[in-house]
Amino acid sequence: MMSAGFVNILKLCVGADSVEDLLDWHRTHPSPFPTGERRHVTRMWPKRDVEILAGGSLYWVVKGLVLCRQRIVRLDEVQGADGILRCGIIMDPEVIRTEPMPRRAFQGWRYLEPGDSPRDLPTARTGDDSLPEPLALELARIGLR
Asked: In the list 18, 48, 78, 122, which could disulfide-bond 88, CB 3.0-4.6 Å?
């Protein structure tokens, strides 16, 4: 199998019950950057940082399903109030919805190979028939979609 040359990160989206909750959080918490990037601070610096920066995204797990991603643009050192250096994952502000993919809860973050990552959902077009979101999510939860 050929390598894509990059790797993604998988992270729980704690406190969000839906992609809309994440989007609402973005609307109500202004970005600290003039260009609008979003930052998520995590305790550990990834050992595969070069691969992440070669095109990786942060895939968000919401209520047991991977539902969206944000492209990672850089990793910054962030010093906490306790003096400990942490990793600031700086992401593009655009949230891209993905096909729902079940994922069990875990601590911290995990690497996610491109071949194991869910595909992006197409942007809706007028006249498209699609399943109602609650039905599509439930089908994904039980492994039928």
From this structure: 78
